[in-house]
């Protein structure tokens, strides 16, 4: 662990003792590396990280396509990837992700339990032990962090019944567990047997990402009683995880009005004692299918500036279909813009230096330097190449009326 602390402290420009202290307090989680990759830190005083969700579906399950999407995500700057596969040979694709990923890999074990139970019989007949076995299997394969929906409880579902939502439950894992609980008239096994979940995580060195199975999937559903009840439960479970020596991350809401975002982040940080906060978006409007990488980036920037530590990207395909390589690339880039904008607001070491160096290159009309420092150098180079001559001092927007050229005359 000492080498990890030194590595992460150096990369993040943070004092090693502060990093260790935040880790001990549960305010930083360290996600272990995949074979051939390196570990990263997520949490207080660290750069905002970006995750890319990948994986097959029941309709589309080409493993080679998923590996190309992994490569696109990493090239665009994703800090982690998550395997959300639900189609094809699930263990095969998970192992290929682990073999090919230079960044930590997360997963959602309940998906595999659902798929395998569905292949044998109805998923509602799944036994609790099968849910735990799926977590063990993912730990055995070398996954770094797992999403587990332990906060979907009977009492939370009562709140949902008393105040029906516009979009109900939009989490796949959350909706399955809610259905299982209703059909079997039993409590969520992952909540009831949480000590066993913790023992599995401790044995395999898994970081536990406490999933928000009741996250709002519409602005109208944000911050309702069911979401708050789940968050309170996750806070209690996070404290139990810390006492058991298991690292924990808290997952946060999906669709939230802009004015609510800072308060929701601060509420989570307070209830969960500063645990790293991992948010999907959040999306700030429901009307932009095809452009939801933008709606998520707006919400992600606000959330991270308010204290969220980890942004899960959203692609243009969100709400429409399985993303392709270009969707993955655009999703990662949009989330990275949001993360960097938040790092600037948080005065994260290195963030302001990058922007200032870019500004100085821009002032000098140093096009090569600007392209080199761009978030996406290939895109900047392509646009410059198709709009300007190789030897052109200015750009075709202003030409000889370039303000920088006039100002320096």
Strand order of the largest sheet: 3-4-5-6-7-8-9-10
Q: Which architecture of the largest domain would the CATH scheme give at its second level?
A: Alpha-Beta Barrel
Number of helices: 18
Given helix and strand content, the structural type is: alpha/beta
Verbal overview:
- With 409 residues, the protein is of the alpha/beta class.
- It folds into two domains: 2-345, TIM Barrel (Alpha-Beta Barrel), CATH 3.20.20; 351-408, no CATH class.
- Helix content is 51%, strand content 10%.
- The protein is built from 18 helices and ten strands.
- It has helices spanning 2-12, 16-24, 63-76, 90-100, 109-120, 128-141, 154-162, 172-184, 189-192, 194-204, 225-243, 261-271, 292-305, 325-345, 351-363, 367-373, 377-387, 403-408; strands at residues 28-31, 40-43, 49-54, 80-83, 105-107, 145-148, 207-210, 248-252, 277-280, 310-312.
- The protein has an eight-stranded parallel beta barrel with strand order 3-4-5-6-7-8-9-10, surrounded by seven helices. The chain has a two-stranded antiparallel sheet with strand order 1-2.
- Helix 4 links the parallel strand 4 and strand 5 (105-107).
- Helix 13 (292-305) packs parallel to helix 14 (325-345) and helix 15 (351-363) runs antiparallel to helix 16 (367-373).
- The longest helix has 21 residues, at 325-345.
- The radius of gyration is 22 Å and the shape is globular.
- The N and C termini lie far apart (56 Å).
- The mean pLDDT is 96.
């Amino acid at each position: 662990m000492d080498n990890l602390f030194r590595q992460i402290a150096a990369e993040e420009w943070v004092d090693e003792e502060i990093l260790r202290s935040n880790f001990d307090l549960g305010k930083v989680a360290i996600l272990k590396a995949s074979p051939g990759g390196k570990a990263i830190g997520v949490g207080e005083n660290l750069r905002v990280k970006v995750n890319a969700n990948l994986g097959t579906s029941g309709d589309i399950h080409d493993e080679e396509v998923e590996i190309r999407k992994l490569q696109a995500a990493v090239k665009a700057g994703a800090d982690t990837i998550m395997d959300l596969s639900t189609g094809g040979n699930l263990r095969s694709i998970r192992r290929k992700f682990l073999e090919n990923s230079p960044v930590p890999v997360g997963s959602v074990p309940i998906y595999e339990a659902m798929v395998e139970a569905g292949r044998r019989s109805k998923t509602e007949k799944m036994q609790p032990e099968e849910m735990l076995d799926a977590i063990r299997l993912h730990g055995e394969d070398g996954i770094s962090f797992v999403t587990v929906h332990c906060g979907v409880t009977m009492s939370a579902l009562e709140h949902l019944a008393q105040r029906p939502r516009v979009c109900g439950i939009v989490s796949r894992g959350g909706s399955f567990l809610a259905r299982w609980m209703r059909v079997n008239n039993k409590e969520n096994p992952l909540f009831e047997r949480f000590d066993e979940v913790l023992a599995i995580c401790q044995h395999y060195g898994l970081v536990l990402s406490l999933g928000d199975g009741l996250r709002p999937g519409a602005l109208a559903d944000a911050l309702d009683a069911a979401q708050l009840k789940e968050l309170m439960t996750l806070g209690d479970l996070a404290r139990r995880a810390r006492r058991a020596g298991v690292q924990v991350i808290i997952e946060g809401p999906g669709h939230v009005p802009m004015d609510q975002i800072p308060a929701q982040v601060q509420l989570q940080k307070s209830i969960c004692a500063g645990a790293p906060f991992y948010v999907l978006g959040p999306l700030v409007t429901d009307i932009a299918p095809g452009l939801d990488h933008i709606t998520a980036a707006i919400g992600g920037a606000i959330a991270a500036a308010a204290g969220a530590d980890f942004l899960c990207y959203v692609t243009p395909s969100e709400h429409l279909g399985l993303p392709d390589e270009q969707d993955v690339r655009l999703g990662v880039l949009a989330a990275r813009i949001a993360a960097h904008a938040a790092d600037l607001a948080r005065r994260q070491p290195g963030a302001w230096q990058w922007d200032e160096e870019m500004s100085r290159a821009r002032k000098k009309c140093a096009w090569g330097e600007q392209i080199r420092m761009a978030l996406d150098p290939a895109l900047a180079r392509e646009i410059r190449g198709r709009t300007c001559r190789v030897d052109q001092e200015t750009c075709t927007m202003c030409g000889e009326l370039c303000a920088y050229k006039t100002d320096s005359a």
